[in-house]
Design brief:
The chain is globular. The chain has no helices and 25 strands. The protein is about 0% helix and about 45% strand. The strands form five sheets. The chain has a six-stranded parallel sheet, with no helix packed on it. A six-stranded parallel sheet has the order 2-6-11-16-21-25, with no helix packed on it.
Length: about 200
């Protein structure tokens, strides 16, 4: 089990970065109750993977329970990716199958006008990957903005999936949300992709 980790950079529960020709298998684990956070004094900061950060040439993620992990941030010009899990790496091939990914979140709060990105409450999948996502339960994950935002809006409550080649099939994707409660310079608040 990978539980109750904390930090302020990458991988609240675990950070896994393979080499240029690596294969990483993450199978049958419970990854829960991990948190990454950055404060309002850490400007121009990024955080990745509240539960786990995984970057490898080939990544196989099967049969895991990834739940109740969080990214919490209030820094100006900050980016947060993957409340539950961040998956990436140049040229990565990723299989995500048979996992339960639930109750993970990204939450942003700052009283100033800021640039801040919140992508993928459950999963963030890096844009360079080739990925297959099948037979997962992706439930009750969220991205939230509780602050004034300069043109940045939360996206992908269940997951933010940006891949060179992507196949999604036979998943249960329910009760995920992407919420923006404050305006962007006085305009109507925007949020994108409650599910994916």
């Amino acid at each position: 089990n990978i539980k109750v980790g904390t930090g302020n950079g990458s991988g609240g529960g675990a950070y896994i970065a393979g080499g240029s020709s690596s294969t990483v298998k993450l199978t049958g684990n419970t990854i829960s109750d991990n948190t990454l956070s950055i404060s309002s004094t850490s400007n121009y900061a990024n955080i990745w993977g509240g539960g786990i950060y995984l970057a490898a040439t080939t990544a196989i993620v099967t049969g895991n329970n990834i739940s109740d992990n969080n990214l919490i941030y209030s820094a100006t010009y900050a980016n947060a990716y993957g409340g539950g899990i961040y998956l990436g790496g140049n040229g990565t091939t990723i299989t995500i199958s048979g996992n339960t990914i639930n109750d993970n979140s990204i939450a942003y709060s700052n009283t100033a006008y800021v640039n801040a990105n919140a992508y993928g409450g459950g999963i963030y999948l890096d844009g360079t990957a080739t990925a297959t996502i099948t037979n997962n339960v992706i439930d009750n994950n969220s991205t939230k903005n509780f602050s004034y935002s300069n043109s940045r809006n939360p996206a992908g409550g269940g997951g933010y999936l940006s891949a060179a080649n992507l196949a999604i099939s036979d998943n249960i994707i329910t009760n995920n949300s992407s919420k923006n409660t404050y305006p962007s310079y006085g305009s109507t608040p925007s949020a994108y992709g409650g599910g994916l």
